[in-house]
Write a structure and sequence with these properties.
Thermonuclease family protein; endonuclease; hydrolase; Thermonucl_AS; alpha+beta; 7 helices; 21% strand; 40% helix; OB fold (Dihydrolipoamide Acetyltransferase, E2P); single chain; two-stranded antiparallel sheet; SNase_OB-fold_sf
């Protein structure tokens, strides 16, 4: 009985061993099949990536479509401001030639108006002698270039003039919202010319001046300008009640001026302000 049991156990172990060997062989074959499938799939992905890479290269080399230049204002960098005619008109030096630029959307007081000279000085302080960038908009009826001046700090001279109360937004020729908002702020905080309870717009001033000029009969003779007047410095009281200019800044008459004392050339005092020489303190 014991021998029969041992034979049965031996047979069972043999069957188990053969079964394990068969299972291991099957497992090895399945493993090899899976490995082959993985290799074939990776080979296919490499082919797809190569094709995809070619497509990307084609897209990358395609030309970039830009906006037409006609939709963008002309721009020139590096122009130097070599002259300031008044608050809203400057002279640029470009390629060795001078270019007169009228500031777009801006109208500063005339020189004979209150804040006219201050506006000119403000423009000079910000821009004279500096390299600026010009954004060209168009040309006016006098052939001047109309544009926006971008200062070295990136700010717009046009907007700075209006924001600080040295100019009106010239709405007859501009609907720029930034300039409109700048004027609204200057009015609200009573900056510059808005301190006056009833400032006169320069276009109204020019219109009234033309009307008076046309009404004069006979024509008023033009005051002669002395030789060297374009280079000689004189002083005048920026008051509508003053009719003279002074060659001596320490003149007692000038010291009684309650308004701003302006420093101009003698030619400007005569032609632009309509003044005559004061003989009280004259050294001539």
């Amino acid at each position: 009985m014991r021998e029969l049991t041992l034979h049965l156990l031996s047979a069972l172990m043999l069957i188990t061993t053969l079964s394990c060997q068969s299972d291991r062989k099957d497992a090895q074959e399945q493993f090899r099949d899976r490995q082959q499938a993985i290799l074939e799939r990776e080979k296919g992905e490499d082919t797809e990536q190569a094709i995809g890479g070619e497509e990307i290269a084609v897209i990358k080399d395609s030309p970039v479509v830009e906006e037409p230049l006609s939709q963008q204002p002309a721009s020139t960098a590096g122009d130097k401001v070599v002259g300031v005619k008044d608050g809203d008109t400057v002279v640029l030096l470009r390629n060795g030639e001078e270019l007169t630029v009228r500031l777009f959307g801006v109208d500063t007081p005339e020189k004979a108006q209150a804040y006219g000279q201050r506006a000119k000085q403000f423009t000079s302080d910000l821009a004279f002698g500096k390299q600026v960038r010009l954004l060209v908009h168009n040309k006016d009826r006098y052939g001047r270039t109309v544009g926006t001046i971008i200062l070295p700090n990136g700010k717009s001279l046009n907007e700075e003039l209006i924001k600080n109360g040295y100019a009106w937004h010239y709405k007859a020729y501009s609907n720029d919202k930034n300039l409109a908002n700048a004027e609204a702020d200057a009015r609200r905080f009573k900056r510059g010319l808005w301190q006056d309870p009833n400032p006169v717009a320069p276009w109204d001033y020019r219109k009234e001046k033309r009307s008076k000029s046309n009404a004069l009969e006979p024509a008023v003779a033009v005051t002669p300008v002395p030789k060297g007047a374009t280079k000689r410095t004189v002083y005048l009281c920026d008051s509508s009640g003053s009719a003279v200019y002074h060659v001596d800044k320490s003149c007692s008459v000038l010291k009684r001026c309650k308004a701003e004392v302006l420093t101009v050339t003698e030619a400007a005092a005569i032609r632009e302000f309509g003044r005559r020489l004061d003989k009280t303190c004259s050294k001539q």
